[in-house]
Amino acid sequence: MSNAPATRRPRGYLSAEAILSGAFDLAEQRTVGDVSMPKLAKHLGVGVTSLYWYFRSKDALIEAMRVEAAHSYLAQLAGLEDEPWDEHLLSYFRRMKEIFWENPVICDLLAFRAGARDPGSLFFERIDHEVALLLDAGFEDRIAAAAYQTMSVFTQGVVQRQRLFDLDQKSREASGEDMSDDRPWQLELTPGRAFPALEQTMPFWS
């Protein structure tokens, strides 16, 4: 998957690349969870059996999508090298958040899903660079490892919460639910019980 739109091939044309491209198109129109072999075959205008010549199962297809998403994600993180270590890490994690927010399919594939052949090793070179910055800045090994993991987990956690909120909004819109209710952003306190600290701080919860 690249940032530049791929040239669309004739409907019915089939290759592993065309199937992957169609799977990303379908995921963008719906969600990654909605991608199935029958739906993808219909989207591509081919028989469902023909997809299995290239991918033995839906799981194999999703794995290939995750690897493709990882390459795209890493490419979008490039160009953040010429800053002091602290400014660099701010830029790095802000960019991580932006990539996930701007690319829901990449977010769903990398931030929410784990696979049998996890593409984590594809990230090792990038992570090694970030941890090296902390070590070179004088942080102890233990602190450097903890610092990177803390910032990464926090950033992905923020992204996941936002993505779940977006999906909830879409689901409610599709069902015709009243969208004036900001329920997902509020704590639902148990009726009949007092939570004074939570009630006092309610405006600041999200």
Based on Cα principal axes, name the global outline.
flat
Strand residue content = under 5%
Q: What value does the average pLDDT take?
A: 84
Distance between the termini: 33 Å
Q: Find the CATH superfamily.
A: Tetracycline Repressor, domain 2
CATH architecture: Orthogonal Bundle
Record the SSE blueprint.
Blueprint: H1 16-29, H2 37-44, H3 48-51, H4 58-76, H5 85-102, H6 104-110, H7 124-136, H8 141-174, H9 196-201
Condensed summary:
This protein has nine helices and no strands. The protein has helices at residues 16-29, 37-44, 48-51, 58-76, 85-102, 104-110, 124-136, 141-174, 196-201.
Could you name the key traits of this structure?
single chain, 206 residues, mainly alpha, Tetracycline Repressor, domain 2, disordered N terminus
Structural description of this entry:
The chain is mainly alpha-helical and 206 residues long. It has a single domain, classed as Tetracycline Repressor, domain 2 (Orthogonal Bundle), CATH 1.10.357.10. It has nine helices and no strands. The longest helix has 34 residues. The radius of gyration is 21 Å and the shape is flat. The N terminus is likely disordered.
